[in-house]
Specification:
Belongs to the RecJ family. The chain is α/β, with parallel strands linked by helices and 527 residues long. The chain is built from 19 helices and 18 strands. The radius of gyration is 24 Å and the shape is globular.
């Protein structure tokens, strides 16, 4: 692993971190440390909102049914919850619809539109999808449905022929849905709905700088005192501390559980959890989501072992497929392998006639553009520069692989994963005060990562493994260090040896005691 150390800009660590984030001026610092959504009012005024709201109010006045067409991931579920709660509070008749991942796939579907028509709806509002739904938009018009699209995914040159389009790439899908409705509901409800925007922003990996940071910062305040029965039940069954929820707990605990049900079963149960007013039902649904998440973890581990056996290390892109992989976990497979081998990776769930693919990329490779180079043999494709999904006829998989192999050969792909080091520090700088100062930079996430530091030529001692040999523990300068998944290093290191360490500084509260700890990301023998 190659270390890329940021140029030293200040002797003060916090000043260095701010400079790394290009935060220089007093106003920028105020926005960073005390972010407010109101400071980004221009970004919230998205074209098409007024027209869409007028149509919604007309539907309410005439007692028309509105179908909210969502998505099966955390962003889509949260966006659906936002519109369902907001519209019903206005007196609208609302019916939510979440497509089935394997039966329908991503996006506005014929099945969903026909369901809306058969249900007696006159308007359909998409959330977190629809910006490239050209054929579906035409079908909606043929069926006499007024289609309102709210989305944040990358658009193409033209927009679908819809009644109204509310589109922004500056925020997640749930945030776009919130922008649509925020001025039409009481301020108390508008504020309450921000907790769903915060969850979606973290789970969809939007940058936690600027507007995204403001959404999460304000949303976390609501989430940590939430009265939402579903969230309370999920928080309780997940074993996290109410009132101490941050971006980590969203991204690694709550988010995976909201996502899991849509990966393996039907995501409508996640939406029911967020919208239920029955505490008994909330507990049952929260338990269900956790059980499904455990199953998802087991399936992912098995599939990962199978996928690793198919990897050809020298390839610039890994394109792997199997009949045994559920479409619900291929994104996880692609993500894990892309991270481990530092290559853009595509995992395909191979079906009899149609196969589903999911892709994850690395720095410098716009994976959705790469995949769109094969649009002529794809059924559909969408996503972001770093992640994409698509459908393809199974008979075209081999030609798809060959064409992408040829396409990627002309692109610069780094051969080694780069670990960004924010600052080189000395052991004496690792204090409880520094830990407290670092906490002021939260919420951490994409665009504002938890800082990784490096110590050069430091002596280690008390080397041992924990977790049945999986993890490495040791000390340096009487500070505890833990290296998860690096147990094999126990045979390469010796007590008294000098090493270079890359790490995250954290506070270990195990057994009720607080102590500084280094969470190791890489170890190099000092030279």
């Amino acid at each position: 692993m190659q270390w890329k150390v940021s140029h030293k800009k200040s002797k003060d660590i916090i000043e260095q971190l701010l400079a790394n984030r290009d935060i220089k001026f007093p106003k920028e610092r105020e926005l960073f440390f005390h972010p407010k959504i109101s400071d980004f009012e221009n970004d919230l005024q998205i074209a098409g909102i007024d027209k869409a709201i007028n149509r919604i109010l007309k539907a309410i006045e005439k007692n028309e049914l509105i179908v909210v067409f969502g998505d099966y991931d955390a962003d889509g579920i949260c966006a659906s919850a936002i519109l369902y709660k907001a519209l019903t509070s206005l007196g609208a008749k609302v019916l939510p619809y979440i497509p089935h991942r394997e039966k329908e796939g991503y996006g506005l579907s014929r099945l969903g539109l026909e369901f809306a028509k058969d249900s007696g709806a006159t308007a359909v509002i998409t959330v977190d999808n629809g910006i490239v739904a050209y054929d579906a938009a035409k079908l909606a018009k043929e069926l006499g449905l007024d289609l309102i699209i709210t989305d944040h995914h990358l658009s193409q040159e033209k927009l679908p022929e819809a009644f109204a389009v509310i589109h922004s790439i500056k925020m997640c899908g749930a945030a776009v849905a919130w922008c649509l409705i925020k001025n039409s509901v009481p301020q108390s409800l508008s504020q309450e709905l921000l907790q769903f925007v915060a969850i979606a922003t973290v789970c969809d990996m939007l940058p936690l700088i600027g507007l995204g940071r403001a959404f999460v910062f304000e949303g976390l305040r609501i989430l940590n005192r939430t009265e939402n029965l579903g969230l309370l039940a999920l928080i309780n069954v997940s074993g996290i501390n109410f009132g101490e929820i941050g971006s980590y707990e969203i991204g690694h605990v709550l988010g995976p559980r909201l996502n899991a049900i849509g990966r393996l079963e039907h995501a409508i149960d996640a939406l029911r959890l967020l919208c239920t007013k029955d505490p008994v039902k909330a507990k049952k649904l929260a338990k269900l989501l956790c059980e499904v998440n455990t199953t998802r973890q087991q399936m992912t581990m098995l599939a990962l072992d199978q996928a690793k056996a198919l990897v050809v290390r020298e390839n610039k892109i890994h394109i792997l497929h199997s009949k045994e992989w559920s479409a619900g976990i291929i994104g996880l497979i692609a993500g894990r392998l892309s991270d481990e081998y530092y290559r853009p990776t595509i995992a395909i769930s191979q079906g009899e006639v149609v196969s589903k693919g999911s892709a994850r990329s690395i720095d410098g490779i716009n994976i959705v553009e790469v995949i769109r180079s094969c649009s002529d043999i794809l059924i559909d494709v969408g996503g972001h520069p770093g992640a994409a999904g698509f459908s393809i006829k199974t008979e075209h998989i081999e030609i798809f692989k060959k064409r992408l192999d040829g396409y990627i050969k002309d692109l610069p792909v780094q051969s080694e994963k780069v670990l960004a080091i924010e600052a080189e520090v000395e052991v004496k700088q690792l204090t409880r005060k520094l830990v407290n100062d670092l906490q002021k930079l939260e919420p951490f996430g994409f665009g504002n990562p938890r800082p990784t530091f490096a110590i050069r030529n430091t002596q280690i001692s008390d080397i041992r493994t924990v977790g049945n040999g999986k993890h490495l523990k040791f000390k340096t300068a009487d500070i505890d260090a833990i290296a998860f998944g690096m147990g094999e290093f126990v045979n390469l290191l010796q007590n008294g040896q000098f090493v270079d360490l890359a790490f995250i500084l954290e506070l270990d509260t195990y057994n009720g005691f607080e102590r500084i700890q280094l969470k190791i990301k890489d170890i190099k023998v000092a030279v």
